[in-house]
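Anyone? Bumping this.
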Amino acid sequence: MSVSQNPSEAATSPQEREARYNPSEIEPRWQQRWAEQPELYAMEPASSNKPKYYVLEMLPYPSGQLHMGHVRNYAIGDALARYMWMQGHNVLHPMGWDAFGLPAENAAIKNNTPPREWTLSNIAAMKRQMDRLGLSYDWRNEVTTCLPDYYRWNQWFFIRMFEKGLAYRKKSKVNWCPQCATVLANEQVINGYCWRHEDQLVEQRDLEQWFLRITNYAQELLDDLGKLDGWPEKVRTMQQNWIGRSEGTEVEFDLEDSASAPEDEERERGKGTEVLPFLETSKKTGKKIAVFTTRVDTIFGATSVQLAPEHPLVKEFAASDEKLASEVTSLIEQQKKAREAGDIGEIEKHGVFTGHYAINPFSGERLPIWVANYILLDYGTGAIMSVPAHDERDYEFAKKYGLEVRIVILPRRTIDPETGKDAEPMLPYTAEDSLLINSGDFNTLGNEEAQKKMAAFAEEKGFGKATVTFRLKDWGVSRQRYWGTPIPMLYCEKDGIVPVPDDQLPVLLPDNVAITQENGSPLGRVPEFVNATCPKCGGPARRETDTMDTFVDSSWYFYRYTSAKDDKAPYDSDAIAYWFPIDQYIGGVEHAILHLIYSRFWTKMMRDLGLIKNDEPVQRLFTQGMVIKDGSKMSKSKGNVVSPDDMIARYGADATRAYALFAAPPDRDLDWQEDGVAGVSRFLSRVYRFVNRYAGYTGGAAQSTPASQALQRKLHQTIAKITIDFSGRWHFNTCIAAIMELVNTLTAAEPAIAAGEVSDAVLADTLRDLVLLLAPFAPYLSCELWEKIGGQGELLRTPWPKADESLAKEDAIEIPVQVNGKLRSVVRIAADADQDTTRDAALADEKIKAALEGKQVVKLILVPGKLVNFVVK
RNA sequence: GCCUGGAUGGCGGAAUCGGCAGACGCAGCGGACUUAAAAUCCGCAGACCGCAAGGUCGUGGGGGUUCAAGUCCCCCUCCGGGCACCA
């Protein structure tokens, strides 16, 4: 049998002849139209009398490819922006590129493409993808951080900070990632691993680096978390932990003037439990060991002093004690390994007695000084008093080395009923609510009171004071890389560190720099860059060759959006005053303590420079969930990546975006199922065909037929539901489900429409509002259909439909009727039926009659409009 | 270890204030249209018992409060995320 032409083609059914939803035809057409009217998505000036709304999504790194996480992020932001426009706001919805960073250098090495070229072509590609998605960005204020018109202001800020002492240079132990071949900030080290290279352990190196004094703001950053009630609790807690404020007391212990290296026998003595008696002041060396403790109330229980292996005093001790030196080296090694492996909390505790003693200023006792691998140099003072009875770590250590355990606090009211004496607590005993014993003049005090009195005592006697310690460290911003903002500093033999004068900014990043994996800044190998003139003395100067951490770029980019083209200032203060704070910021939770803490710091710094008025950049923060496929996060290494381009090609941008919103509430993880995208696409297709089919139904007065009323009811219920959700809950998945229900209702009403039971005007209104409701979620289709039904004016500026409560109201409702809490029947009654009517209707029901047969009703629960429950015996 | 989010049909999820558990969608099954298929449309669909009417069970597990619990309280299990010798 040969294949022949289809004879029935001419006789296709009316539905087959209907226009087919074809996103690959609709979407490019509208893209072009939107591209031709950039004012469509433009912000209006501050003089606008509309309420402002600044909606911001985190700017991407231009890797060259959008991934589904981006699509989800932008779909959420875009829906909100479009809704806000329709609600009559002046919307700022900008986008930009976090365009400096290491991948560009790696690409340069791999493909021999200059970083700038690689980055700019990636930006062009991703911008095309964004445009295909139909995102409503105001590209006129695009920010690209790798361009001099942006990074010059990084340099400008840096110099302002230098002038204020907020940017400074110091030598210190820093995190070094061998793969990045550069230093990392503390925030960029995740459990000892590099934040960009999940398998790369970070090393510690001693380097001289630039730091920003974020610790000046530690307290304010902490306090103001309280103001951020539009932020997820989770993020606030994470920042709070990161800042890590702890209140305590710093106490100075005198160093005893003791012998040099101890004999082996004496080394053993330090391990003994005996705390040696009071020593005269004449034996003091004048040297002090500062110790930080949050539990000064337990200081009489201290039985040793423990130093971090890298504590300067340890170096001193070790200088004249070879045996100690070698043991310390091994302790340092252990600590380094543990830190690098990210399990510093799990290594076995090791320590060694130094042969030296310190004097407890409260008790006058001499305590052996030990070095231990669990003491961190960079927290507190790098030294602790060890109180084994009341600290878990000290207890573990003391047990191992046989140090004395002395109880100095007891729980309140724990008299042993048999002996009539205080019961000994289980050790280590660390409770806050306790009483002091064996503590000299401080006996019987409650621990909280004791802490206050002891701190005051220490201060009075001059050997200590109450202090606050933060875990947060200053932000190391130097990077030994090429593709970043040059740090605008000069080193002059005569004048020392000199900032580049403002009128010489920007310090341009030179092109044609050989990028290699060698250590040291690539810029250091460019003599034209390095050799400069000192602006003070006119003599030769060397230029700083490190560049800035790229988190500097993203710390203030959202200010630049309000006046991205300004070449006189980083931004326009009036515009900032109008637009800030950002009304809604949307992004992944992975930046909770990186970008989001730096940004808060930067804002406070700018405020203190007198540049802006606001204390915080972001009013409301939303952190979306991850995109999951087959049970794990989409990633190249897992091979479960779904390409947005692929989805768009197959189902269209509208379906792809709408699915990203439909499959889960935005704050939860989203399971990507391609069949689901197909389902959403089918839904859009139904809408398309339905609206086209009835686009001609217009005009006339609304007639109040039952079918019309039913349609209006569903419509206004849908409007109300979606409007409420936009106001805060953001469960767009149920919004889209509600629109699907509305469309199902419309489809089911087709016979009634055909029978003329639905008034044309009502049908027309319903279609019109349906198109408007769909606009935030499927903008292409909405615009197409808006035109089809003869919508006047720009869809984006058309007011969002208003729910009419009286139309939304049901006139008859179904009430569940229970007997003893079990559902037995459902009765249909008028929505405004009173209690008696409701009860009578329930009693009249046959099934209820049967269920109540022979029983005695002891109680009647009647919740108006909700339910009836007969409690029977 | 501490903090946090979660666990609901075969799957994604819904139930916003303690009041009909499973909206909406996917996959599945049956039917219409078609020579056939695709597309589309209509219908069924938590589990178990039953021809049916109907009944019993059911929101990770155990207890409790209540006329009524996915929802509130107590205890526990598992999964995800964050922090972790921070003195």
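Late reply, but here is one note on the structure posted above: Residues 1-16 of chain A have pLDDT under 50 and may be disordered.
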